[in-house]
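ARCHIVE CARD
CATEGORY: sequence design from structure
SOURCE FIELD: tokenized fold
FIELD CONTENT:
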């Protein structure tokens, strides 16, 4: 089955460019478009896309609020890939904290766009880990968030789960983590699932953000 994508951007030219790049791939299908975040929820419910590629800045409802709304109101929500002009942008970090699964630069090359959609859809690796780390360093609380620290303390990760979370923060895939820890891939998948459950995170990105915000992993 192809990865289905909903495009959300107030610039028709951007949507057209993304559609052309993605629909050139045999395993990706663009199922719809919207010009503002306010239209996302009904389209997500109607089209059930695997991934929403969403502009972070739009006139009526921006990508941050739209992300929150989708995750709050849609059962089994899609992955959300924030599309942005600037990499080092506080809005991007806010979107990740709100629940977005990754971000993509509008100036990205076609191969990078396709890779981002596939990677976010698979959910087994962190998209642009170095950039997420830099965003956390620039805009995060640097471990000063009492709420994030409390979540991490309640999680009571085992030593192996803690190792897995640290490697997740470095952007390693399940296969790479398995090779580093000399365990099977299925064992890593089990540890990742346990880490997400204990942290109340829906995916790797949210777990890594929690690790940075709590000070469990230093973003620098």
């Amino acid at each position: 089955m192809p990865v289905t994508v909903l495009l959300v951007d107030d610039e028709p030219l951007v949507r057209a460019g993304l559609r052309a790049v993605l629909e050139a791939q045999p395993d990706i299908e663009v199922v719809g478009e919207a010009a503002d975040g306010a239209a996302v929820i009904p389209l997500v419910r109607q089209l059930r896309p695997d991934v929403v590629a969403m502009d972070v800045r739009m006139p009526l409802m921006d990508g941050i609020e739209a992300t929150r709304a989708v995750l709050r109101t849609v059962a089994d929500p899609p992955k959300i890939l924030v599309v942005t002009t600037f990499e080092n942008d506080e809005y991007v970090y806010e979107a990740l904290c709100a629940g977005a699964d990754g971000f993509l630069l509008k100036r990205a090359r076609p191969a990078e766009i396709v890779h981002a959609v596939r990677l976010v859809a698979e959910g087994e690796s962190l998209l642009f880990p170095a950039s997420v780390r830099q965003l956390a360093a620039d805009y995060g609380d640097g471990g000063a968030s009492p709420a994030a620290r409390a979540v991490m303390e309640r999680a009571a990760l085992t030593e192996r789960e803690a190792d897995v979370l640290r490697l997740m923060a470095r952007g390693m895939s399940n296969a790479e983590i398995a090779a580093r820890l000399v365990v099977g891939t299925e064992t890593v998948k089990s540890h990742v699932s346990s880490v997400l459950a204990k942290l109340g995170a829906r995916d790797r990105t949210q777990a890594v953000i929690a690790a940075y915000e709590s000070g469990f992993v230093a973003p620098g």
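CARD ANNOTATION: The chain is about 55% helix and 15% strand. The beta strands are 3-8, 28-34, 51-55, 79-84, 102-105.
SHELF: design records, drawer C
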